[in-house]
Design goal:
Layout (H helix, E strand, L loop, with lengths): L2 H11 L3 H7 L14 H15 L4 H12 L4 H13 L8 H11 L4 H18 L4 H7 L5 H9 L2 H5 L4 H11 L5 H15 L3 H11 L5 H8 L4 H8 L2
Helix pairs in contact: 1-3, 3-5, 4-5, 5-7, 6-7, 7-9, 8-9, 9-12, 11-12, 12-13, 12-14
Length: about 230
């Protein structure tokens, strides 16, 4: 039995009735899921990666695509975790592979954030020239690509990196009407504020008249109470 079939068989063996019951409550979209606990999915991703890590990167990417083609959220999580386990082997051209996955396979916020926070965020840290691609994503008609433009920078922003790009992407998404895009760039600003509180606070104050309240609340969530009150003033 090939490794993808083994993964699917073990996912079936680990279906949890309670997980099946509440999984869909996290999403507005209709989600295809087996009903397996996240902790179990993570264990399976590590277990089966050990069986394939000797393969070439392209072979592993092909296995990821095979998992993604099923549209099951647990299989997508395993694919994205496998791709992130390969980060030491990333090359600049791999960005195009991940960009294709975002466009072709992602259909909910959880998949978007798993792929973008980790896999795409890591390759952008390694090859910052791809920030230019993120800026282009802000003009996409695909809500997950637009959200991904921001959520890709979550972990770098938390480290204090790419502040100029954070503000440029926030500018481009500022008036987007999609609440999940608003939450995405608000979250990015919140993470950037951990290392650059003054700069992010000033950005929010400059834009608070036109920034959607959803994004604003996310952006200031970790700031001191006095700053939050000041930012929320009309």
């Amino acid at each position: 039995m090939d490794v993808v079939s083994q993964v699917r068989e073990e996912l079936q063996e680990n279906i949890d009735s309670k997980t099946r019951e509440y999984s869909s409550s996290f999403f507005k979209e209709e989600i295809k899921f087996h009903g397996v606990k996240v902790s179990t999915v993570t264990k399976l991703s590590k277990k089966y990666f050990l069986k394939i890590e000797h393969l070439s990167k392209d072979e592993i990417f092909s296995l990821c695509e095979e998992l993604l083609s099923s549209s099951y959220i647990e299989e997508a999580f395993i694919a994205y975790k496998w791709s992130h386990y390969l980060e030491e082997r990333y090359e600049p051209e791999d960005f195009a592979v991940f960009e294709k996955w975002l466009n072709d396979y992602v259909s909910n916020w959880a998949e978007c954030d798993t792929l973008c926070n980790h896999t795409i965020g890591s390759i952008v840290e390694k090859y910052p020239e791809h920030i230019e691609n993120l800026k282009k994503w802000t003009q996409s008609k695909n809500r997950w690509v637009k959200r991904g433009a921001a959520t890709t920078l979550i972990l770098p922003a938390r480290k204090g990196m790419f502040l100029e790009a954070v503000f440029e992407i926030a500018d481009k998404l500022l008036l987007d009407e999609d609440d999940l895009v608003q939450k995405g760039y608000g979250w990015m600003l919140k993470e950037a504020s951990k290392a650059h509180q003054k700069e992010v606070f000033n950005y929010v104050i400059r834009n608070r008249e036109k920034m959607p309240r959803t994004a604003l609340r996310y952006a200031i969530e970790k700031m001191p109470e006095n700053l939050r009150k000041e930012a929320m003033k009309k």
